[in-house]
Amino acid sequence: MSEQQRPTILLEEKQRVYRELGIVKADFAARGWFPGTSGNLSMRVGDYAPDRFVFAVTASGKDKAASTPEDFLLVDETGKPCEPTALKPSAETLIHCEIYRKTGCGAIFHIHSVYNSLVSELFWDRRAVPVEGVELIKAFNIWDEEAVIDVPIVSNFADIPRIVPEVTDRLDPRIPGILLRKHGIYAWGRDAFEAKKHLEAFEFLFEYVYKLQLVRGR
Question: DSSP string covering 99-113, please?
Fold first, then answer.
């Protein structure tokens, strides 16, 4: 994207987004959701069009339990840095690019937990985690009584570009999240608050589904 095409990003807007991401990063790190520098966070900044947007994303390889001036950088819709920097965006930035392009959301949070990894393998054959009639489904603005949802699962390749087409094909407009097999959950929302709410709901539901399987002896 050329400088002429790139959305104008005000300094104070960038600072606000970095500050919000820093708060979320500290919260999730305290919950143990970033083991071994894993996981990544992003928030969109400035105007949006499906083929033209900018977002802040966590820098690769950083200890997310620590707070430093090098925690985040700005990238464009192709995942390339928008400003001169020695920082590298998260290896999975292309997945964020595709989710923004397809959904127009404002924030995407990706974490690794034991339960989201377990259910992604447990239900891999059906390529989705079924959740039936659990109250926290309402966190996704689904209000049907005894609602049933299927959280999509996609392949986890070392070559990230190979994952992107599956993400494109499997995104469900009703479900603000997608699982990578034995890897982790991507959850999104219109802003940081909603993305965090969705992520917390997914994590509760995954733990519920896994423990229900144990109770049922499956």
Answer: HHHHH--SEEEEE--
- Residues facing residue 187 across a β-bridge: 109, 177
How far, in Å, are 59, 79, 156, 168 from residue 162 at the CA level? Answer: 22, 15, 9, 11
Residue 48's φ and ψ, nearest 5 degrees, are -130, 135
Is residue 134 helix, strand or coil? coil
Q: For the beta carbon of residue 179, count every other beta carbon within 10 angstroms.
A: 28
Across 86-113, b (16+ Cβ under 10 Å) vs e yields ebebbebbbbbbbbbbebebbbbbbbbb
Is residue 87 a contact partner of residue 73, using CB atoms and an 8 Å limit?
yes
Residues facing residue 149 across a β-bridge: 131
Residue 89 confidence (pLDDT) above 80: yes
3-state secondary structure of 122: helix
Please state, in angstroms and rounded to a whole number, the distance separating the CA atoms of residues 106 and 48: 9
Q: Cα(141)–Cα(191) distance, rounded to whole angstroms? A: 15
The percentage of residues in the chain with a pLDDT greater than 70, rounded to a whole number, is 97
118 close to 210: Cβ distance less than 8 angstroms = yes
**Six-digit token string for 158:** 């070392």
Specify the pLDDT at position 2. 46
Q: Does residue 184 contact residue 111 with C-beta atoms inside 8 Å?
A: yes
CA distance 77 to 83: 14
pLDDT band for 218, please (50, 70, 90 cuts). low
pLDDT digits (tens, 9 = 90+) for 73-84: 999 999 999 999
